[in-house]
Amino acid sequence: MWNVLLSFSGLVALIQLIFLPFFPESPPYLLLQKEDKAGCLKAMKQLWGEGNYHTEFDDLMKEKAITKGTKIMNVLEVLRERSVHPQLCTMLLLLLSLQLCGLKIFETANLQESIIPYVSLGVSISELISIIFCSSIIDRFGRRMLLCGGYLLMALILVLLETSLLL
C-alpha cells in the first residue's frame, strides 16, 4: 500500500495547485515590492474581509519609507559583502555540524563507516548549493509562480510514477 501513500502527497499537491490561483498575493509583497497600493488594499479586503485597514496600511507605508534607502541584495551580492562574512561562516558551520549529527541515519542505511563523513559532507554541500540556487530563483521569478510550478511538476511526476507502477 506504499503507492497509495505516495499518491496522497500528489493529491495534496493537486489540491494546492487548484486553489492557489484564487488566493491574493501578500499585501506586504504588493506594496513593498510591486508598489501597488490599490492591489495591497484589495488583497487586505480579500484576506481579512470588509473593514478599515488604514492602520495596517500605514504600518506598511512606514516600513516602505524605512526600507526605501536600502538596497535589496541578491544572494551573490550578499556572498560578496565582507561585512556579513562572519555571520555566513557561523551559519555554514551550523549547517555542517547539523549534518554531522545525522551520521546515525547513514549508519542505519548500512553505509561503510569510512565513507559516512564524506557522504554527510556531500549532503550538506548540496543543501548549501540548493539554498543559494533557490534563493536566486525566488528573487527572479517570485514565490507564487514557483509554488504553482512546483506543485504542478510534483503532481505530474507522481501521476507518471503511479501510472508506471500500475502498468
Task: Give an overview in words.
Helices cover 78% and strands 0% of the residues. It has nine helices and no strands. α1 runs antiparallel to α9 (143-166) and α6 (85-101) crosses α8. The chain starts with a helix and ends with a helix. It is a multi-pass membrane protein. It comes from Motacilla alba (White wagtail). The chain crosses the membrane at residues 6-24, 118-138, 145-166.
Summed up, what is this model?
InterPro entries: GLUT, MFS_dom, MFS_sugar_transport-like, MFS_trans_sf. Keywords: Membrane, Transmembrane, Transmembrane helix. The protein has 167 residues and is an all-alpha fold.
The count of helical stretches stands at: 9
Helix content: over 70%
Structural class: mainly alpha
Q: Please, what is the oligomeric state?
A: single chain
Query: What's the N-to-C terminus distance?
Result: 16 Å
Mean pLDDT: 82
Q: What shape does the CA trace take?
A: flat
Order of helices and strands: HHHHHHHHH
Indicate how many domains the architecture comprises.
Answer: 2
- Ranges where pLDDT stays below 50 over 5 or more residues in a row are none
Total strands: 0
Tell me the β content.
under 5%
Alpha-carbon Rg, integer: 22 Å
Report the biggest beta sheet as strand number plus sense, adding barrel if it closes: none
GO cellular component, one term: plasma membrane
Main location: membrane
Domain Major facilitator superfamily (MFS) profile: 1-167
Transmembrane segments: 6-24, 118-138, 145-166
